[in-house]
Amino acid sequence: MSTARSDAATDAAMPDEPGEPDGQRERPRMTRRLALPDGLRPYRAPLLLYGVTKLVGLTVFALLLEAAGDYREKQPRFGGGAHWWDVLATWDGWWYLQVAEKGYDPRPLERLDPGGLFTVKQNSVAFFPLYPGLIRGVSEVTGLGLFGSGILVSVLASFVAAAGIYAVVSTLAGVRAGTIAAGLWAVVPGAGVEWAVYSESLFVAIAAWCCHSVMKGRWLAAGLLAFVAGLNRPTSAALIGAVGLAALVTLARRDSRREHGVAGPVYAMVAAPLGLLTYVAWVGLSMDDPTAYFTLQREGWAHYFDFGAYTLDVLGNTAVGHHNYLFAFSVPDLIAVQVVLALPFLIALMLRKKPPLVLVAYTLASIVTVLGTQQMFGNTPRYLLPCFPLLLAPAAAMGRLKWPSLTVFFTTAAVASGWYAHYVMFELGIP
């Protein structure tokens, strides 16, 4: 027996020291400290920055709502309610809650009297099923009401989205830039819907991690996420196309084909569009019209792809101070114009960073879809919210600043966002 084992055996057999009660010998104290798993620790700083920044903006929004008090005079469905937080579930939020509560009623298209702006009666099938389905599921599991469940889903999804943005940007520009990008996403124009009963946070969460999966060559995950995105929003077509293009280029190049194989990219190409196609096909079959979804969008909401004619009309009117265009809201439209004018500069900076093809394709396709569609122009910042790769260059540039300067910036932006990203959208326009 070795000396070490003999000493251990002797210590075990010895009685307690004199003067000490039996079993009361002093032993080393073992303390347990709660700690994040190693895999989650890198996300602590970006999620903290995102959460604090969003909370400040939401607080300012609540204060502005209470100070103005206009929401009390509006209908609960159209921007009003008994409490300030009710505003977060109006407009599109009302439709999502209707689907979560009652499901769909896909009757054949009901025609309205001609001559008006809308010639088809609006129907809830215009709103994709993933987000309201999650609201209903969370409500059933937790016992929360549908409103609380909708807010919970959006808030949790927004943190997943911020983590995905951090993962993508930090891979390309470093940890500091990734953290800043997560914070920037909290204060961009349009960010007011991130903690509301809207599907943007859920979509961006899926899109960011889908792009990250493509960047890492995880084709099975990318295909599955793109499939799920197709059940959330029609604009998932941009993400689906980007995943398909990246997979096709991977297969076309001998070196990448050898590295990634064939099965993964092919699976991603096939699986990605199935969610979107399945839902649109279901709407068509249920309403006895293969093009029912697109007809409903065009004639029930006046949303359709017009190759940018509406956007040019708004820009031309705004330039000379006129408002002779559809869905005119002066303050939201002015902010949207500034965002649109900034896009060429942001795109050029993004391309200068030479990001992966999937990010370029996804961003450009999303921008073309937004600017090429007739819809409420004041909501352009909201529609561009999924274009998170545009944050890559600004985040990388701001990464050279010291934290005191960054603190001043994010504090100022967080406070201001309560107005330009929240109040302007919900109270001065129609989100």
TrEMBL record:
Biological process per Gene Ontology, one example term: GPI anchor biosynthetic process
Keywords: Endoplasmic reticulum, Glycosyltransferase, GPI-anchor biosynthesis, Membrane, Transferase, Transmembrane, Transmembrane helix
Bias type Low complexity, positions: 1-13
InterPro entries from the UniProt entry: PIG-V/Gpi18
GO molecular function: alpha-1,6-mannosyltransferase activity; GPI mannosyltransferase activity
Localization in the cell: Endoplasmic reticulum membrane
TM helices/strands, residue ranges: 47-68, 141-159, 165-188, 235-252, 264-285, 325-350, 357-377, 406-426
Membrane topology term: Multi-pass membrane protein
Pathway assignment: Glycolipid biosynthesis; glycosylphosphatidylinositol-anchor biosynthesis
The organism's place on the tree of life at top rank: Bacteria
Cellular component annotations (GO), alphabetically ordered: membrane
Chain spans, region Disordered: 1-30
PANTHER family named among the record's database cross-references: GPI MANNOSYLTRANSFERASE 2
Protein name per the record: Glycosyltransferase family 39 protein
Species assigned in the record: Streptomyces phaeoluteigriseus
